[in-house]
Amino acid sequence: MITMTDSARDALKRFMVDEGPEVGLRVYITPGGCSGFSYGMVLEEQYDDADEIFEQEGVRVVVDRFSSSMLDGAEIDYVESLMGAGFSVSNPNAVTTCGCGHSFRTSDSAGSAQSCH
């Protein structure tokens, strides 16, 4: 299961105002990045039967089957700082992460390290 902080839910509600009631935040993992895997997020209204859907206080989070096990127990936050604002993932399955914070490796899957840029 993936959870969201109040800050992340509030930010998503603001972003989704013009998108319609069926829109959810798809959170996914792709091979790549300097540690092996990278996080991705996109607003989406089309779901696959194999997707896992988590609803929390009016916000829908959608995860595909490939990403599900690597994101189990993760928490999504929305952080605002002097360097900018954006979503971050706190993932208990990540055993290493890279300096950019967008790439990680799990103990089960090393992935293939690539450039983060």
Could you explain the architecture of this structure?
The protein is mainly β and 117 residues long. It has one domain: Hypothetical Protein Aq_1857, Chain: A (Sandwich), CATH 2.60.300.12. It has 2 helices and 9 strands. The protein has helices at 6-15, 65-71; strands spanning 3-4, 24-31, 37-44, 52-56, 59-63, 75-81, 84-90, 94-97, 103-106. The strands form 2 sheets. Strands 4-5-2-3-9-8 form a 6-stranded mixed β-sheet. A 3-stranded mixed β-sheet has the order 1-6-7. Strand 2 (24-31) and strand 3 form a beta hairpin. The longest helix is centred in the first third of the chain and has 10 residues, at 6-15. The protein is globular.
Shape: globular
Structural class: mainly beta
CATH architecture: Sandwich
**Tell me, what is the CATH class?**
Mainly Beta
CATH homologous superfamily title? HesB-like domain
Report the average pLDDT across residues: 80
User: How many structural domains are formed by the residues?
Assistant: 1
Give the H and E element order.
EHEEEEHEEEE
Please describe the biggest sheet, giving its number of strands, its sense, and whether it closes into a barrel. Answer: 6 strands, mixed
Q: State the separation between the terminal residues, measured CA to CA.
A: 29 Å
